[in-house]
Structure formats: C-alpha cells, structure tokens
Design brief:
transmembrane helix, transmembrane, EamA-like transporter family protein, mainly alpha, 0% strand, cell membrane, 72% helix, 15 helices
C-alpha cells in the first residue's frame, strides 16, 4: 500500500514537472541545459587524467544512453499499464459489442495511413540520429585531441566559436544576414570568451583542431534545430546518444582505454548523467528556437563553468574572468532582447503529401502548420518570409 501511494505521488510529481518545463520559455530551458553541460566540464577533466579521451567519451555517452533508454522503458510500461487498466474498466462497465466492432473497423481503416506515417518518422529518426550523433562525435574527438596539443584556455575560446560559425552557415544557406542585434551580440560574446579564457592566438595544430571542433559543434546545433521539431524528443535523444556511444566505443577499442580507476569512472559517469539531462532539455528548447538563438544562449557555458570552478576547486575570480563573463552575458542579452520568448507554433512541413496530419502536427489548434518551411535550412530565398529567415524560430511540434 505504501509503495502504491508513494509511486502515485512520484508519478504526479513527474507529470507536474514535465508540464512546468513545457510551459517555460525556451531560452530559460536552454539556460538550464547549459548549466548541466557546464557542470560536466570539471568531471570530464578529472576523467581524462586516467582514461583515454575516447574512453571517457564512451563512458559518458553509454551512461547517457542507458539513462534515456531506461526512462523511455519506464514511460512505455506505465502507458501500457494505464491502457490495460482502462480496458479492464471498460469491460467491467459493460461496453457494447457494437461500439467495439465499429472501433476495430475504424482502426483497420486507419491502419495503412498510420503505417506510412510511421515509416516516414522512422526514416527521419534514423537520419537525424546519425547526422546529429555523427557530428557530435567528431566535435568531441577533435576537442579532446586539441586539448593534448594546445592550452586549455585557447581550446575553450576557439571551441566557443560556434557562436560565429552558426550564423555564418545560416547566412550562407539562406542568403540573408542575421539581424543587427544578433551580430552585435555575437561580437560581445566573442570578446567576452577571449577575455575570460585568456586565449593566445598562435595558430598551430591544436588550435586548428579546436576550430574544427567548433564547426562540429555548430553542425550539431543546426541538426538539432532541424530535426527536433519533427521528432519526439526522447527518441531523438536516445538515437543520437546511441550513435555517439557506438562510435566512441569503437574508437576506444582501437586506441585503448587507459588506466581504469574508480575516480575516473565516477567522474565520467557523472558527465553521462549531465549529458542525458542537458541534451534532453536542449532538444526540448530547440523545438522552439532557431540555431542562432540556441548557440548564443549556449555561450553562457564558459561563464557557468568558471563559477563552478570557483565554488568547487577555489579557482580565483580575476578581473579578466569577471569582465569576460559580463561581456558574454551582455552579448546574450543584446542578441535576444528583441527575440520573442514564446515563438509562434510553427513546424517545418517538408513531408510527402501522404504524410498523416496527426504526425506532422500533433497539436494543430495550438501549433498550426504553415504552408512553407520556416527552418533556415529549408527556407526559400525569395518571397515575403525570406528576409526573416534567420530570426524565424523553429516551432514546437507537440510533445506527448
């Protein structure tokens, strides 16, 4: 009896937390996500003291994949139990056979359409998971390789250049420059990151690898913005986490594990927990944010990491560190001060005509589907919507 009551309370609390997250402004959700990513920086550094970089990444993403998979399994079990309870109550209530027969015939009629829509969703899920997971793996491997060849501050600064790469890539694809406030915010964030990290601009092999890792991170942000509105967030999370875990594990099998110690495993395990929660929140937020908005907000990670290092290991807060953090926060504020906290509900509609409407927009009354795609990668370069391509937020497709 106690277990049932406690389980019901936990379930109600989880549903309330989920509703609160869905009702929160997307920038706030992404800020919380950035906090989880920032909390994993120090443990990641502790893990690579003993483990090889590829092994640390493998442990991180295997743990994250297991956690997301477990959460999905529990959710599926609860849904199945609830459906079974509802069916039992209907039988005990004496549901008429005629209504059951009509429902079965209706389900049979809708079967082929649902099957076709599910095939499209499966292809999208596989494509999105492979693309997002692949570029994320490349970014992590390049960044870890750069840390072996260059100063940590320089690598941190060059890796944060995603804030420049994403707007440039979006501008090249859509053939429209971002708004002036976005450009000013990027300039402030770059200057703040340079001051905060104390980077040195002597371009060598390590610095080149760090810049390439920034490109990988940028492509991951853009892939997430493109596929997140089209897919169910938890399954998209599981797919891309699984791809990174597989690729990192294969790399570890080739290059070796390193020294396996409990401190290193615990540190790497925590990074997996932070990755699972942080990526889940990031995907949830990027269903309603474009890539430019997302990468600007994620530039707060170095600031949060600096604060965490000050609190945990006592790193000094110098004037340069404080000034750089202020510049980064100011850049985010300038970039997003004119952006809507609650973007209109729109979703990219690059589906076949036979794609079921209930899959392309699961909440049509709250999030109507526009006739043209709104994501910059598929935005037409002419017409009334084109000038706002870089500022048009990706819409929420509707979480289940």
């Amino acid at each position: 009896m106690f277990q049932r009551v406690w389980g019901a309370k936990v379930q109600r609390g989880g549903k309330a937390a989920t509703r609160s997250l869905r009702a929160a402004p997307p920038p706030l959700i992404l800020l919380v996500s950035a906090g989880f990513f920032a909390s994993s920086i120090l443990p990641a550094q502790w893990a690579v003291r003993d483990l090889r970089p590829a092994a640390a990444v493998a442990v991180r993403f295997v743990v994250a994949t297991a956690l997301v998979g477990l959460a999905l399994a529990v959710a599926a079990w609860r849904r199945t139990a609830a459906m079974g309870a509802a069916a039992g109550a209907e039988m005990l209530g004496g549901a008429s056979g005629a209504s059951g027969a009509s429902g079965a015939s209706a389900g049979a009629a809708a079967g082929p359409v649902t099957s076709g829509g599910q095939k499209v969703l499966t292809r999208l899920l596989v494509t999105g998971s492979v693309l997002a997971g692949g570029v994320n793996t490349v970014g992590f491997v390049l960044q870890n390789s750069a840390l072996d060849r260059a100063e940590a501050g320089t690598v941190a600064f060059l890796s944060s250049m995603s804030v420049v790469v994403v707007p440039v890539l979006l501008a090249l694809v859509s053939r429209h420059w971002p708004a002036g406030r976005r450009i000013a915010g990027v300039a402030l964030a770059v200057a703040g990151s340079f001051v905060l990290t104390g980077a040195e601009l002597d371009l060598g092999a390590g610095e080149a690898l760090a810049l390439l890792s920034a490109v990988g991170g940028s492509l991951h942000v853009m892939a997430t913005s493109h596929f997140a509105p089209l897919l169910r967030g938890p399954w998209f999370n599981l797919g891309q986490l699984g791809v990174v875990a597989l690729l990192a594990s294969l790399t570890t099998a080739v290059v070796g594990v390193g020294a396996v110690t409990w401190p290193a495993l615990l540190a790497a395990g925590y990074t997996g927990v932070a990755q699972a929660v942080g990526l889940s929140l990031q995907v949830m937020a990027q269903r309603r944010l474009d890539g430019g908005q997302a990468v600007m907000i994620l530039t707060t990670i170095p600031v949060m990491t600096t604060v965490a290092a000050w609190l945990v290991v006592g790193d000094p807060l110098t004037a340069a560190v404080v000034g750089g953090g202020v510049l980064i926060v100011a850049g985010v504020a300038v970039s997003e001060c004119g952006a809507p906290l609650w973007p209109p509900g729109r979703i990219a509609s690059s589906f076949p005509n036979s794609f079921p409407a209930r899959f392309s927009a699961r909440s049509p009354s709250r999030h109507p589907c526009p006739p043209n795609p709104v994501f910059p990668l598929s935005q037409p370069t002419s017409g009334p919507a084109a000038p706002a391509a870089l500022d048009a937020p990706v819409a929420l497709a509707g979480e289940e």
